Amino acid sequence: MLFSQKILKWYHENKRELPWRSTKDPYRIWLSEVILQQTRVAQGLPYYQNFLESFPTVYHLACASEQKVLKLWQGLGYYSRARNLHATAKMVVEHYDGKFPNTYEELKKLKGIGDYTASAIASICFGIPEPVVDGNVYRVLARFFGVELPINTTKGIKYFKKLAREVMDSENSADYNQGIMEFGAVQCAPKNPKCQECPLNAGCKALKDNKVQLLPLKQGKTKIKNRHFNYLVYLDSKKNTILEQRQGRGIWQNLYQFPLLESEKEMDLSEVKDKAKNADYLPSWDTADLYNGQPIVHKLSHQHLYTKFWILRTEEILVGATPWNKIHAFPVPVLIADFIQRFKI
């Protein structure tokens, strides 16, 4: 039995019942694929359902405000995915009359849709034999064929795409692509893969050479950057606070936060006062208390944020402030959402 036939047989016997597997609607397939990038199914499923409830069609998503889209996305991370999702919906409505393009090449022209997502939509919705290559597929192919090319190099990416095309079932690309991704997520998992009961174990090169835990290979490791965040949580006598929207192309673009003082090292109260004085847009305060004695360490893919929340109370009414009981409506980073949930005025 061929590699692809074994994948298909395993998939038909073991696939999880998931809502996007009962449709070929490009909108729903696209939505599920974007949400599930860098997200586990268990975490992504409620978001998928909430998005469909709020935006049942691409038209609803295109007409929504960015703030509402970001709020629904809150907690998933990688917020550029949400902004691209919104931008793509507008493109589909404005340039394609609300219908997703039905070719791999045209799909790739949409914002935020790369090789993987275009391949998934093309094969699942339109039956185009375009192989998907995501983290799960890299792992299955690298282990079974014993490929030791790093998956994050140009040479490696090209090689795995070519290999994926050679071994796929072109006559049943939709099920095959979903099958190999499912196989990598469930059977050939990153940790504790089920090798002894694997239908591919007889021909698996990594299992034979005792390299299952070593593959796939990645070249180098990105250096982790440490940053120190000091959030200024203002509270006036009317229980108002200050929120500002993050600008620029850094992390959490367009999300909301409390006024932020970033520093190269951990700061104490006197240092916070000095730094705040130099930022003339910040109001003064009467009392200051540190909410968390030790910095909260929030880990992102390439940076660790050492965060303190300073509770600053003032008798003056803050200008342009937001009532504390209204801040739940704003899309904020999960770090701030957790603080808001815990903090009691």
Automatic annotation (TrEMBL):
One Gene Ontology biological process: mismatch repair
UniProt KW Iron-sulfur keyword: yes
All residue ranges annotated as the HhH-GPD domain in the record: 35-186
N-terminal signal peptide: none
PROSITE patterns xref list: ENDONUCLEASE_III_1
Keywords assigned by UniProt, alphabetized: 4Fe-4S, DNA damage, DNA repair, Glycosidase, Hydrolase, Iron, Iron-sulfur, Metal-binding
Catalysed reactions, as listed in the record: Hydrolyzes free adenine bases from 7,8-dihydro-8-oxoguanine:adenine mismatched double-stranded DNA, leaving an apurinic site
Obligatory cofactor(s): [4Fe-4S] cluster
Keyword check for Nucleotidyltransferase: no
EC number: 3.2.2.31
An example molecular function term from Gene Ontology annotations: oxidized purine DNA binding
Binding note for cofactor: Binds 1 [4Fe-4S] cluster.
InterPro entries in the cross-refs: A/G_AdeGlyc_MutY (IPR005760), DNA_glycosylase (IPR011257), Endouclease-III_FeS-bd_BS (IPR004035), HhH-GPD_domain (IPR003265), HhH_base_excis_C (IPR023170), HhH_motif (IPR000445), MIG/MutY (IPR044298), MutY_C (IPR029119)
PANTHER family named among the record's database cross-references: ADENINE DNA GLYCOSYLASE (PTHR42944)
Family: Belongs to the Nth/MutY family.
Chain's role: Adenine glycosylase active on G-A mispairs. MutY also corrects error-prone DNA synthesis past GO lesions which are due to the oxidatively damaged form of guanine: 7,8-dihydro-8-oxoguanine (8-oxo-dGTP).
Protein name from the UniProt record: Adenine DNA glycosylase
Organism per entry: Flagellimonas ochracea
